[in-house]
Structures are given as C-alpha cells and as structure tokens.
Amino acid sequence: MRKTLSNLVSTLALAGLVAAPTAASAQASASTANALDLPENITIVGPQTPNLRTATAVVNGAVITGTDIDHRVALVTAASENEIGGEELQRLRMQVLRNLIDETLQIQEAEAQEIAIAPEEINQTYARLAQQNFGQNTGAMDAYLIGIGSSPVSLKRQIQGELAWQRLLRRNVAPFVNVSEEEVNELLQRLEASRGTEEHRLGEIFLSATPESRAAVEQNAARIIEQIRQGGSFVGYARQFSEASTAAVGGDLGWVRLAQLPAELATVAREMQPGQLVGPVPVPGGFSILYLIDKRQVLTADPRDALLSLKQISIGFEPATTEAQATARAGEFAQAMQSIRGCGDAENAAGAIGATVVTNDQIRARSLPESLQNAVLQLQIGQTTPPFGSVEDGIRVLMLCGRDDPEAEAGPDFDQLMGQIEDERVNKRAQRYLRDLRNDAYIVYN
C-alpha cells in the first residue's frame, strides 16, 4: 500500500496536481517582541490557545471546511515513511490551508474570466491517474483514497484547480511572453561552449528570513532536514514549505552549472555527492536546503547510461560455517574467479567450485549500487569485479560480458530551448498574478 501511494503521489507531482506551496509567514523573534515593550510576566485573559482555531476559511464567499483540509493532509501524510505529529502536523495543516486558499482563488479567477472546466475533463484526468496506478480501475482508486482518509472529491477538486489555472495562464499570460531568436541563439552558443563541463541536478528548499526571524527560520530548516533524513520525501517537503518558484516541481532546479548558482550555493554544491543533503545554507534573504540528485557533463554521454550484459557468480555459506572456514572458502572462490577464461567459461568454472551463475543482459550501469558502478565500468569484456559480500549474504563477483555505450547528448534544440525560457517567464508572471489575487481577496478565517 505504501508503494502504491508513493507511485500515486509521484504521478500527481509530475502532472502538477499536488498543490504548490505558498510563502510561509515570517516568524517573529524575541527582539521584535522586546521592541513592543511587553512585560516579562503576562496573564492571558480569555482562551488559552487563541491560535489553535478551527482551520477553516471563507474565500470571497467560498467555504473551505476542516474536512477539506483533513482530506488533503491525508494525501500527504500517507506518503510519509514516518508518522507526522505535533507541531509538524500543525504546520502542515496550515500550509495545506494556504494551498486550498490559492486553489480557490485560481478557480474563482478562471470563472470570472469565463473559463470553465467541464466535469468530463476532470473525470478524464482522474481516470488517467487511476489507469497509471490501478489499471483503469477508478473504483479501486476511490476506495484507496477513502482508505487513507482522503476522498475522490478532494482529488478531483485539485485537478479542477490545476486545469483552470493552466488554461487561465495560457490565455492571459503566455501570449504576452516574448523570447527573441537572439536570446535563444546566444544561449545555444553558451551551451555548446560549455560542452564537457560539469552540471549538477539540484533540489532546493528555500525559506525566507528577516534579521528578526533568522534564528527561528534556521531552526525550522534544521527540523525539515531531520525529517527528510529520517525518511521524509524531499519533494514533498519542498512542495509544502519552499518559498522558491521551484516549489511546484518539488524544488527541482533542473540541470545547472555552478556558475549559474549564487556563490553561497555553488560553493556547497561543488563538494556534494549524489544523494547528499546539505543545509541550512545561509543565502541572501534566508536559508536554503540543497539535495544533489545527480551530476553529469554538459552535452556529453554519461557512461552510467551504458547498457551492460553481466553474469553474477556467487557462493553461499551454511549457517554453521566458522569464520576460518568462510575465509578459506572465499579465498578459493577468488582464486577460481581469476582463472576464468572469459564469459564462455563462467558456467564451467562456477560449477567446479559449487558457485551459481545468474545472467542479465539488460542492466543500466546507473542502476547498480554506486560503489559498484565505477568498478564495473572499468572492466573489459570477460573481466570480473573484486569479490564482495559477507558470510550472511554470500560472496559474489560481477563479470562483464557486453557493453553498449550511450550516444552523446545532442542537447536541446532551438524550439525546446525557446519553450524552456517561455515556461520560466510564464511561471514568474504566474507568481505575480497569484500574489495580486491574494491581495485583492476577501478572506475570513473561522
């Protein structure tokens, strides 16, 4: 069930159907409070928890209920490997409320511009998601959503908001975004000039901070890092908490060169390895949390995309095997592997020492454990890796029996690059558009 949810949430994220986060409210520090000349000891008159109100709102007359929030929160929390509770859950609920307010404003603006999303379109998208995750069985997805505490109505509402906003942007924003041929050609030239240099694919969570709120924001960033390291989804936290425009795509900055990054981030990213999480990194205006997804060379074939034909030769140990016996057996195995005369001799050599052979002709080098990738890519046909394993798991080697190297990256063409620039500019204007809708909205919190 956990795997099914992860697949579903990933599908929603790729489709742009998981609500994008909005800017978090700044946290006041003690220095700000002192400026108000408040007494050290105070007595609360009235309710003791005035901020723990029922999380509902009326947005230009449209009601967002507590149930609406519960259903969206359930979709997020069910994907987390760890239970979310206490202050973290409260922050998530408030973030979901902000997302629902934005979604309501987007739908209302589309309706005001006479842009309507037909129920058939919503149902088609819902059915497509069901097909990707439940084999065309919308009933199974209905039951699944209800089972995790969400609902089909909530997801369909989210689909409606996304479709409405996309259509609104295509009509009111995209036609007024211009990208010149000179800009695209200049960028293509710079890209070609950088062929062979290193690129990083980074994820970022940006949290804004003022001088007064800096300490509190840094502590919040540290809590987010701890949650991610304990198994939380970086993409999920980026969507919920990041205040950068990349929040809508889970914080993914795409492939960038270090020279394109602010100096503070470039310095940190230069030392990172794929899969590493670093932060909080002080940057102008706040803090960033960085996650290195991958590295590659610009417009150059990545050897890790090579398609390999491998034979795995392995031996196991009986439960009662002593350390001395295992050492002797491992030595015998290693010596036998060195004497193998190519892939055609693997089965015979393995049979002679009681080893087993498993063949796979369709292995991407990058799918191997990172510690093995370089070792395998350095092999010639018929050679084996050094033995690896343990008494519990057995000892094994990998023999390279074939390798098809990837073709060099052609890079984006003119139209693709122009589309990327246009999308970036549309997204920036969309953020301003949404800020204007918030400023003009009449919102009542209950």
TrEMBL record:
It comes from the Bacteria. Transmembrane segments: none annotated. It holds the Pfam family SurA_N. Keywords: Chaperone, Isomerase, Periplasm, Rotamase, Signal. The keyword Chaperone applies. Residues 1-26 form the signal peptide. This is Parvulin-like PPIase. It comes from Qipengyuania benthica.
